[in-house]
Amino acid sequence: MSKLPQRFEDVDALETFMSEPTPGLEADLARLDGDIIVLGVGGKMGPTLARMARRAAPGRRVIGVARFSDPTLRASLERQGVECIACDLLDRQALERLPNVADGVRNCVFMAGHKFGAAGDASLTWMMNVGVPMMVAETFREMRIVVFSTACVYPFVPVGGPGADEQTPPTPPAGDYANSCVGRERMFEYGSRKYGTPGRLVRLSYAIDMRYGVLYDVANSVFAGTPVDLTMGHADVIWQGDANEQALRLLAHCTVPATPINVTGPRHTSIRWLAAEFGRRFGRAPMLTGQEAPTAWLEDTTQAQALFGPPRVPIETMIDWVADWVRCGGPSLGKPTHFSTRNGKY
Question: Would 276 be classed as within a structural domain?
Fold first, then answer.
């Protein structure tokens, strides 16, 4: 594996490093039979996850499925050796035509979902986050399935504690998005129990890319001189490459029935501290607004660390990278996280 870079010159350098497989991932995928299909590959994390899988297991097919409304994404993935299939996952018949076990595909990573805009279209949110998982759990019941979920299924927990662990009952405080994510988990759990499908539910908290994420949002505000909202005063973050690596490795650590696992960084991060760190790097005092709540969506990652060890990229390195990216005018995906939201309305 390469050393951690000092900075990223451009998007290509960023995505090349972000999709670099670890020896642990290569070893875990070598234990598995069959090819890999990624449902919802067109999201923020999907392209680098698919590329990482392809690099880690070059002898296998990696199939990326999305609507591919942006043809440049499909062309980019295909250049990296990822087979692409355009499919609307809401279409049951189209879903059933996708490659399956009979075609040698034994491993599924489910990344589809609907979050932003959920408050304005609750029915679509529930269909994408519950209806589609029900259909996928039935259609791909003979595969191993790793499902991307979210820390939002948990209740808020005290910021001074260890965070919610996997035994914490999923009882989100509010909102169609968080509650429908509990429904997503329940559909895959039901399918796993009914059909004996091996699976894992990845309760992810804030993957970090240079172009989006909590760190980008805070850095961009500090650099632009706009207020940083402290209302949700703490967050858990993890480098996107580490999150993708753990999700792919979980294909070799599935359970029946499917069980949850928390995936994020090992430290609860103060938003006030983040703003101060970016301010120090930019040479300007951050503007702050609001008062930190005593609770937040925070996770205990003891289980993931026992399986995989600590994430490769520490928080201080991520801060350095993001500060450099923002200072140099690196591109943004234009997708704010709304990390300060506490009412569940996205």
Answer: no
With respect to residue 33, please indicate whether it lies within any of the assigned structural domains. Answer: yes
Other residues' Cβ atoms within 10 Å of the Cβ of residue 34: 17
Residue 259 φ then ψ, to 5°: -125, 155
C-alpha 66/C-alpha 322 separation (Å) is: 28
- The domain in which residue 251 lies consists of 11-207+240-266+298-312
C-beta neighbour count of 284 within 10 angstroms: 12
Counted domains in the chain: 1
Residue closest to 165 by CA, chosen among 263, 296, 93, 269: 263
The reply to whether 112 falls in a domain is: yes
User: pTM of the entire structure?
Assistant: 0.96
Distance CA 322, CA 155 (A): 29
Tell me how far apart the alpha carbons of residues 218 and 96 are, in angstroms, rounded to a whole number: 42
CA distance 243 to 135: 26
Per-residue pLDDT tens digits of the chain, which is 346 residues long: 779 999 999 999 999 999 999 999 999 999 999 999 999 999 999 999 999 999 999 999 999 999 999 889 999 999 999 999 999 999 999 999 999 999 999 999 999 998 766 567 789 999 999 999 999 999 999 999 999 999 999 999 999 999 999 999 999 988 899 999 999 999 999 999 999 999 999 999 999 999 999 999 999 999 999 999 999 999 999 999 999 999 999 999 999 999 999 999 999 999 999 999 999 999 999 999 999 999 999 999 999 999 999 999 999 999 999 999 999 999 999 988 988 888 777 6
| CATH number of the domain where residue 89 is located | 3.40.50.720
Instruction: Write down the number of H helices and E strands in the chain.
Output: 13, 15
CB-based contact 175:342 (threshold 8 Å): no
Segment (H or E) for 139? helix 132-139
Residues 6+ apart with CB under 8 A from 61: 35, 36, 83, 99, 104, 105
From residue 343, give the alpha-carbon distance in Å to each of 165, 169, 224, 339: 22, 19, 26, 11
- Considering the domain boundaries, does residue 291 fall inside one? no
